Amino acid sequence: MSKLKWKRRLGNICAPFYHSTNRRVILLYHSVGDGSLAVSENTFRQHMDWLSAHANIVPLNEIIGKTTNYKLQVSITFDDGYASLHDRAASILAEYGAAATVYLNTGWIGETDRKASDVTLGHYDDEQFLLWKEVDALRKVGWIIGSHGVNHLDLTDQESSVIEVELANSKRDIETQLDCSCEHFAYTWGRFNPSLQRTVRSAGYLSAVSGIHGPVTPDSDLYALPRIDVRAEYELSDFQALVMGHWDYLGLKQQLVSKFV
């Protein structure tokens, strides 16, 4: 049985225990379009259509607030900074009166020449990166612009000097280019440790999203916020299960694995 089929089977078993319409969720996408790992435009529109009918699509700042008075709230985020966000995702979100957060690898955002992704560095294959003028256009229609570092590096495996440069320079790049504050960070591959959390906080960020699967709760660590990965192979029913909590067992699995690694 395939890994996806196992996810679905376990999700069906766990659904009665995890199902909730009173939760806050941060969704992780990377690209919308025709790339080999991208979520298709049609699928992304289906996702937004379902969310508009069953949830409130809200900005990141609202999701990470400490209020407990909420129903189903969902924030849309993207990592890396691919051109499809400007060319495809933004217009679909606008149809629903929504915007998203994008965490940029600032070293890959071009002035006039677009840079191609490099799969050997962990980028999605067959993608092009945004230009700064496109990032600014996203900001002007309500997108939050966060940092994903200058480069696509696993910061849990870097010297402190490299970490400090990645955090400071990416933040500076965004603030200089866009004349706005950069307050939010995304760990590359979702990987973090206590030392990195402290460094992110010291660098002036107000939050950091991780690769932990699950909802945001009033007790969530602002520097290890859970986020749910939405993959291209998921069907609409899988997406619905993700949002409603049927697959939250994945977060428990991550916690168990981390204790033995």
Task: Give your account of this protein's structure.
The chain has helices at residues 3-18, 41-54, 60-63, 84-95, 132-140, 160-178, 194-202, 236-244, 249-259, and strands at residues 24-29, 56-57, 73-80, 101-104, 144-147, 184-186, 207-209, 228-229. It is of the alpha/beta class. The strands form two sheets. Strands 1, 2, 3, 4, 5 and 8 form a six-stranded parallel sheet that branches. Helix 7 (194-202) links the parallel strand 6 (184-186) and strand 7. It is globular and about 50 Å long. The model has no long low-confidence stretch (mean pLDDT 94).
Descriptors:
261 residues, alpha/beta, 6-stranded parallel sheet, two-stranded parallel sheet
- Give the strand tally: 8
**What is the count of helical runs?**
9
Silhouette = globular
For the CA atoms, what is the radius of gyration? 17 Å
* Most strands sheet: 6 strands, parallel
Strand content: 5-15%
Q: How much helical structure, as a percent, in the residues?
A: 25-40%
Assign the structural class, choosing from mainly alpha, mainly beta, alpha/beta, alpha+beta, or little secondary structure. alpha/beta
* Overall average pLDDT: 94
Distance between the termini: 26 Å
Question: Unreliable stretches, pLDDT < 50, 5 or more residues?
Answer: none
Order of helices and strands: HEHEHEHEHEHEHEEHH
